[in-house]
Amino acid sequence: MPPVSSPRVLDGQEAPARTSAADRAARVRFRRALALMAMTLVAPGSAQLTAGNRRVGRLALRVWLVVVATTLLTGFVVLLDPEKAVTLGSKAWLLLVVRTALLAGAVGWAVLFMDAWRLGQPLSLGLAHRRAAVGVNGVLSLSVAGSLLFGAHLVGVQRDLIVTMFGSSEVAGSADGRFNVLLMGGDSGAGRWGLRPDSLTVASIDATTGRTVLVSLPRNMQDFPFAEGSVMAEQFPDGFDADYLNGVSTWAQDNAELFGDSEEDPGVQATVSAVEGITGLEVSYWAMVNLQGFKDLVDAVGGVTLTVRQPIPVGGLGSDVYDYIEPGTRQLDGFETLWYARAREGSDDYSRMARQKCVMNAMLQQVSPQSALQNFEKIAQASSEMISTNLPASELDRFMSLAMKAKEQKMSSLSLVPPMINTADPDIDLVQRKVAAAIEKAEGSAAPKAKPKSKPDSTSAVTGGSVGSLSEGYAANQAGDLSGAC
């Protein structure tokens, strides 16, 4: 009789061992445990609704559906009208609600994951399956809760920025359809906003279109009037003869008792009244920009691309210069951008003003919503250290919306500097006519004139890194399109 093969041997190979009923049951329990965790990840509460406390499951699932529906609806609205995102992101109370919801969601979701692990009966699993279930549950819990907590942190940063930077001052309406915002730049450190400003620029913004005209005032202007009815106009009825324009702030602080119990800094009040008296514009709001904080802001957005037309000295004046920013179209970091804007060696105040306008224009045009979102926390921190302003938080969404509109348009500039204006003895009537004409041209209501060159050519003179000269003026100081002049 031929030999009979062993049931475990087939064609010379050992047949696979049969799986016992206990092993099959263990695998089923393991798959069930994993399924409950996956259900919690996709639809929080569904695991409890299937195998646990149905009341808890129904509550969690309803909350989840409401959150999903709200998120989809909000996304759809923002897709149709992107400005709604700006509005929603600038409401402090709404940010507080969102932050609280994210914190509660992180805790609640983590608890549901723990309960799903319990419902999977981990003690009935083998050691290897038990360890795997603990690992999977831990990864899912930490990933979901961590993401929500990080989101809550970012929302908290945004809310803190709005609450600390923007106050609750009175809302100022537009004047003749424009918001005029005075931008003052200085080297004052955090908490020291009272020092004399290094630069003074009025951003005159169309309240509908966002079309912006930058009107810059030289810090060395003298013998100018103040706005009628102001404290400074009473003290200097024939014009300010005690110092230069950037010394108004210091004079006012030294005589703070004249300004009564106003909460606003006397130096800022006096500077605003000077700018209004010179330009004839009604200043809606002001912002003081700390130049050291500006450096951090440029770094936060990843740098800014500028055309450097001459070597720009770094370090100060004379022997203090220790390096140069080389010519060419290049991306500058915060440190280089700061020196590009403020360098004095081999330059004059008016060339420097032209470079500063080029920096402002580049920041507006180049900072995209994507880069702002990617570097949000750094930008928020830099902004809080950079700016002091009286812009109310309730107006933030309006101005962010106008900034988005301005980004799509040309930015014009006017500088009240020689040879057009004699800064030692300015013709205020001429100044105010020039300001009005620049605004009318930006609004398209001025009579058409010969079209100026949009870009400097290779024969244009360059002084101190800016196209133009002291005797003929600088292109960026009197430009219908700053991008072309820079």
Task: Describe it.
The chain starts with 8 loop residues before the first strand and ends with a helix. The protein is 50% helix and 14% strand. It is elongated and about 100 Å long. With 486 residues, it is an alpha+beta fold.
Report the mean per-residue pLDDT as an integer. 85
Question: For this entry, what is the oligomeric state of its chains?
Answer: single chain
Physical arrangement of strands within the biggest beta sheet: 11-6-3-4-5-12-16
Low-confidence stretches: 189-193, 446-454
Helical percent range? Answer: 40-55%
Which sheet architecture does the biggest sheet show?
Answer: 7 strands, mixed
Tell me the fraction of residues in β-strands, as a range: 5-15%
- Overall strand count: 16
- The Cα radius of gyration reads 32 Å
Which word captures the global form?
elongated
Kindly name the structural category: alpha+beta
N-to-C span: 104 Å
Q: Total helix count? A: 17
Task: Give a short overview.
The protein is an alpha+beta fold and 486 residues long. Helices cover 50% and strands 14% of the residues.
Layout of strands and helices, then pairs:
Blueprint: E1 9-10, E2 13-14, H1 21-42, H2 46-51, H3 54-80, H4 83-89, H5 92-119, H6 127-165, E3 178-186, E4 199-206, E5 212-217, H7 231-235, H8 248-254, H9 266-279, E6 285-290, H10 291-300, E7 304-308, E8 312-314, E9 323-325, E10 328-332, H11 334-342, H12 349-366, H13 369-374, H14 376-386, E11 387-389, H15 396-407, E12 412-415, H16 428-443, E13 462-463, E14 466-469, E15 473-474, E16 478-479, H17 482-485
Parallel strand pairs: 3-6, 5-12
Antiparallel strand pairs: 1-2, 3-4, 4-5, 6-11, 7-10, 8-9, 12-16, 13-14, 14-15
Helix pairs in contact: 1-5, 1-6, 4-15, 5-6, 6-14, 8-9, 10-11, 10-14, 11-12
